UniProtKB/TrEMBL annotation:
InterPro entries: AK17A/B. Residues 299-319 have a biased composition (Basic and acidic residues). This is A-kinase anchor protein 17A. It comes from the Eukaryota. Pfam families: RBD_AKAP-17A (PF25015).
Length: 342
């Protein structure tokens, strides 16, 4: 048992960022690069923006030298900002998301034809991603005389090193504030935006099943606690996405692992990947984060408080029952008086 756990941890820890991973249940994680795009006007023109022409111009730039990337039309999403006539000059006019899923060109061979080790593969991937972002950042697009400038950023949920630094900084500050001897470390991941039906029992329900979800995520490590809930509020912070959310389709999963190593490997594997179901062409770009609020600790504390309240209420009820004695009166012969005359 211990040897299989160690082998699984080594396998996940050494997984290259360009490799896919089978989760079980027909689900798999496929690598991809996700970039957030923001467009600004480079001139004082007030001509309305044409999202379709802007998309075609950007796709042409990506597919030509020196980038020469294979990017399908569906992997570039652009959205015009509302109320453009009210915007300030330095405010964006459009936003977008770019996905690069075909990363086969980064899978190199060693000197003797063998696959590269994990360290070399990771270095090649991150070097290319940094170079790609630098090439895109600040480019100028000219659409029928209207100039646009584009900024690019990697989402925090797709940058494992940034996530790792965030929880290390958070718990370091907690250690200083509480003056503890040992710092706490995170153990719970949060995955949201995955289809409920992919975690449901077939031919039983379309809602996510705890058993199926546990089976799938146990491939990432030994689980201590798990919870699944509907994720209807996904993206509600963005005005543009409100109409795209359909109640009951997505779920949110909290997974608490037994060890920090399993948590670490799960976060590392889930970052920068999409989820896909066997037999489906849909690729779900979920969001992954770590639990800062202590979800399972708060649930346990709430359950403990409810248990104490129920116990105290039951004790109070028993005390009232034992102290209450019905009052009865008797006549001079010792017989109980009747309430009504016969």
């Amino acid at each position: 048992m211990a040897s299989s756990t160690a082998a699984r941890r080594r396998s996940l820890h050494s997984l290259a960022p360009t490799e896919a991973l089978e989760l079980g249940g027909g689900l798999s994680l496929s690598p991809r690069v996700k970039l957030l795009l923001t467009f600004f006007r480079s001139d004082p023109a007030v001509k309305p923006i044409d999202e379709w022409k802007l998309k075609l111009a950007l796709l042409e730039f990506l597919r030509e030298n020196p980038l020469s990337l294979s990017v399908p039309d569906d992997d570039l999403h652009l959205r015009r900002r509302p109320d453009l006539h009210k915007r300030k000059r330095d405010e964006p006019v459009a936003t977008g998301t770019l996905y690069v899923r075909d990363l086969g060109f980064l899978k190199g061979k060693g000197q003797e034809g063998a696959d590269e080790d994990e360290g070399a593969s990771r270095k090649k991937f991150f070097d290319w991603r940094s170079s790609f972002v630098e090439q895109l950042a600040g480019i100028d697009l000219n659409l029928e005389g209207v100039k646009y400038k584009m900024s690019v950023e990697i989402p925090p949920a797709d940058d494992f090193e940034q996530l790792k630094n965030s929880w290390e900084d958070y718990y370091a500050s907690q250690l200083l504030d509480s003056r503890r001897v040992f710092a706490r470390r995170p153990d719970t991941i949060i995955v949201r935006g995955v289809p409920s039906r992919w975690f449901a029992e077939p031919r039983v329900s379309s809602k996510a099943s705890m058993l199926v979800t546990h089976t799938i995520f146990s491939s990432l490590g030994k689980i201590r606690n798990l919870n699944v809930a509907a994720d209807d509020d996904l993206g509600m912070k963005s005005d543009e996405s409100k109409e795209e959310i359909i109640s009951g389709l997505n779920c949110k999963v909290w997974v608490q692992f037994e060890s920090y190593d399993d948590f670490f490997n799960a976060m590392k594997v889930l970052c920068g990947r999409s989820m896909q179901k066997e037999g489906s062409r849909l690729k779900v770009d979920y969001e992954v984060s770590w639990d800062k609020e202590g979800y399972f600790r708060s649930v346990q504390q709430k359950d403990s408080r409810n248990h104490r309240q129920e116990r105290d209420m039951a004790r109070h009820t028993r005390n009232e029952t034992s102290t209450y004695q019905p009052h009865a009166t008797f006549d001079s012969y010792g017989a109980r008086r009747k309430r009504f005359r016969e």
